[in-house]
Each structure stands twice: as structure tokens, then as C-alpha cells.
Amino acid sequence: MRRRVFITLLGSAAAAWPLAAHAQGLQEAGWAVGRNVRIELRWGAGDTERFRSHAAELVPLAPDVILAAGGIAAQALQRVSRTIPIVFANAADPVGMGVVASLARPGGNATGFTTFEFSMGGKWLELLKQIAPGITRAAVLRDSSNPSGIGEFGAIQAVAPSFGVELHPVDVRDADEIERAIAAFASASNGGLIVTQNGLAILHRKLIIGLAARHRLPAIYAYSSFVVDGGLISYGPDSMDGYRRAASYVDRILNGAKPADLPVQAPVKYETVINLKTARALGLDVPPTVLARADEVIE
């Protein structure tokens, strides 16, 4: 068997964990580095321009398949090549971003695994209201340049009246803007924070967590890594599971399958993570019903 070239383009500075999960999936399928597969790594760190630069560098190497971390990375790759197979992991809205024609029939050179169902937006508000019932206002941090950001806000907006919460969209662009917007929002009382799925929020994770603590804003996040770093609560898909599942599509493509024939799959595993230390700092008593449903509780 000729040696396969498999190039991974990862989108986060904290990509070691998803890479390990993906590598484990490949090994289970019979692919081993140094024996029948070669892996090249590039780090996007949530920077769109860096994605584009890496895509222009990687595509000429003519890999058998490229793993893209998220829809923005997949978009950057497709701008350079519409023929090299792309498997994306944890893309929020691949249809809205134009990466695939539809979930059932991708129709091009990309397929993979999503990280979001829009109904999850309502779940964020529900959990935030349960853990901090006094909230009547919520700032929603989103990336308005990403179609999924608009869809996520719409899902939250649809249920907000039933919870008696007024929403304030905050478009994430840079650190200064995030700091100004959250400070302005926190000048009034009874506020909370919803941080949706977007690469810029990940890039500014520690800043956002610090601002929520400084302004005493109960906050819910799409990613458990925020809670590990001191955030209050998160609800979302198990991101590691997305990378493990992506290995199955990489294996099928390396064995002759076409991305156009592999349907995009939704998450199958969701998790709730709560940081009790942060809850105590905010003066919140976490209801037993919320604790009982948590997959992980950080003391």
C-alpha cells in the first residue's frame, strides 16, 4: 500500500485534545502514523486570515484528505480547492456557510459533523434562567459575520418572551469591543450572559470569563472549556466526540468514498458542566435538579 498523506488543519490554539481524539479514532480504523499515514498540522487559532494562508499552503501538497476544525476552516479550504476531499468536525452551520448544499446530500468535496442544532439556543436560556432566576436581561455574544451566529440568536429570541428575558445582541469582533460592550450592558441590573458558538469567543475566552466575573454576570457558554477555566455553566455537544466520529469519514474517504455521498451528521452526545466555585462567588444556589443533570461538576 502506498503511504497516504493526511493533513489536519485545526482551528484552535487548544487543539491538542481534539487531535488526540481524532488520532485515536484513526488508529481504531487501522491507520498509524509512520506506517500508512502521514499527518501535517496547521494551527488557525480562530484567525480567518491565518486559515486562508494555511489553506493556500496545504492544498498544493495534494493530500488525500484534509480534516478542518469548524466551518470557517472548511470555507477557507474550499476557496482554494473544490476537488480535494475535506472532512470537517464541529461546524456550526455548514449549509448556511455554503460549505455543503444540504445535510443529507453535501454535493461537493466536503462533508462532516456539525456542532449545533438551533434548538440548543433555547436550552442555553432555559439553563441560565434556572441557575440564576433573577435574570431579566441577557447579552448574547455572537459572530454576526457567521450565518450560524444569526441562526443561534434567532433560536434564543424565539423563547426569550416565555422566560421574561430581554435580549441584547453583542457582535464579537475584537477584545476592546467585547470589553466595552459587556461593561455597558452590566451597568444595569439583573443581567446575564450567553456566549454562543464562535471562534472569536474561543480566542478571547479568558477575557470573557474575566469580564463575567468582574461584572458579576451569570453566564452560560457553548463550550465546556470555558467552565473549566472558571465560567459558570456550559451546555453543548461533546467536541471531542465530533473529532472521534470524523475519523470514520476520513477512513471511508481513504478507502474510496466520496464526500458528496456521505451525509453531514448532527451531534449525538451533549454535556452540561457546572462550576460550583463560580456559582458561590456569584452568590448563586444551584438547584438540585440542575446539578442532577450535570455531566461534570467542578468544585
Shape: elongated
Question: In angstroms, what is the radius of gyration?
Answer: 20 Å
CATH H-level superfamily title of the largest domain: Response regulator
* Chain oligomer state: single chain
Contiguous helical run count: 12
Order of helices and strands: EHEHEHEEHEHEHEHHEHEHEHHE
Assign the CATH topology of the largest domain.
Answer: Rossmann fold
Question: Which strand order spans the largest sheet, edge to edge or round the barrel?
Answer: 7-6-8-9-10-11-12
Helix content: 40-55%
Query: What structural category characterises the helix and strand content?
Result: alpha/beta
Biggest β-sheet strands, sense, barrel:
7 strands, mixed
Strand % is: 15-25%
Overall number of strands: 12
* Unreliable sequence segments: none
Beginning-to-end CA distance, first to last residue: 51 Å
In the CATH scheme, the class of the largest domain would be: Alpha Beta
Mean pLDDT: 88
Query: What is the CATH architecture annotation of the largest domain?
Result: 3-Layer(aba) Sandwich
**What's the number of structural domains?**
2
